[in-house]
Amino acid sequence: MVDAMMGWYLYKPIAGYYQLELEKTSPGVFMLRKAVVMFLLKKRNAYDPVGSGTFVFHDGKLLIVSAAHVFEDLSKKGDIYLHVGAVNCIFHLGLFKVFLSKSLTMSRAEDPLDLGLMVVPAEIIDACNGKIVMVQEDMIETERNKDQILFYQAIGYPASKNARRAEKSARTGTLFSPEILVYSGSKKISGDVANKKFVDKHHVIFDWNGQENFDDDGTRVDAPKPNGISGGIIQGCFDYVPHSNGFYPTCAAGIITERDSAGNAIVGTRFSTVFEWFKLQPTMFT
Prior knowledge:
The chain is built from four helices and 19 strands. It has 286 residues and is mainly beta.
């Protein structure tokens, strides 16, 4: 139930705080796809995918940041579940508070950020046993590194494809194993899309071509409908290594918020803006 209100690192809880440990791997190589989670409802006996989210660490707390509209789609819809791919588990979420970037009287179209967050419950932290991957501020795209980015990738859980997998799992009595989407595209700027609410300072914008995509092995595949990937992560890629299962130099660029159909683009709110929002609203974490 949602109560709505206004790198790659591992952590272990110690005396109410978090001890961060940098995973021993090549400098700048982050498995950011393991920070992405999926929110689900239940339709009859099958899980019903709603949207994605991203683990973020800030001010001593583990958060899930997503698009505001994902949390709104979960509101008053019954029991809510969370799939954590890093440990391949689905958790039931009880009552939790959600903080949104917009006021309750503001429409989605009036909110250029489309952000929401929740604090991860302690029981999920304990169950994940220190294996959660998260975004931290020193892992994000900045003015210093943005010119080194070759392309962007959107990472999230497509709803339609995973709904079919969930229905098959319920029908056959087998384990539901969601599939994540990694979509690559070249950089765009705000002038390439018609919607004037997108500005380069606050938004990551890159090309979306629904007819083709490339998997981790460089094989061309059809891109599924992107519905459901909102709330997932956009990563900036400094290099690309085929057959590596995502082990190549990246930074955390933004939170996916929508697809701009007219501009053939995926749009997200930059992590620099996300962390600035955190700092402007410190009461969200008390």
